[in-house]
Write a structure and sequence with these properties.
Blueprint lengths: L6 H21 L1 H20 L3 H31 L5 H36 L1
Length: about 120
């Protein structure tokens, strides 16, 4: 019996997850859009010297949007594998998964607005 944690298995799991992240940003256009937005927000955060709590909110929002995009991509790929042909139920599944990403993206924009709009207004 192995110890409480199987280190080689855990390392393989991290490697698989890393490949998933790589594939997400390599093949998914919307993930790349979120990545560009993330870079802009990080630059703005550094420029405006946002507080640690504001950084935490930004990091949580970024992680939520990227996670939602990953789940959405996984659902879409699985749905395409199940049926390459048009199916109304699969369309609903894919549209609903995309809606989840959109809801989180809107949330991220609102959080970003609350954090950055006052700073931008003070700057000008």
């Amino acid at each position: 019996m192995n110890g409480p944690i199987n280190i080689p298995k855990a390392l393989r799991s991290f490697r698989y997850a890393g490949v998933g992240i790589y594939n997400l940003f390599r093949y998914e256009n919307n993930a790349r859009i979120h990545l560009m937005a993330c870079i802009v927000v990080i630059i703005a955060g550094v420029f405006f010297k946002i507080s640690p709590v504001e950084w935490l909110l930004i990091v949580i929002q970024i992680a939520l949007v990227w996670s939602a995009e990953a789940f959405n991509t996984a659902i879409e790929k699985l749905a395409d594998l199940v049926s390459a042909d048009y199916h109304p139920v699969i369309k609903i599944v894919k549209d609903t998964a995309a809606a989840g990403v959109l809801i989180l993206a809107i949330s991220a924009v609102i959080v970003g607005g609350v954090i950055f709009i006052p700073k931008v207004l003070l700057f000008f």
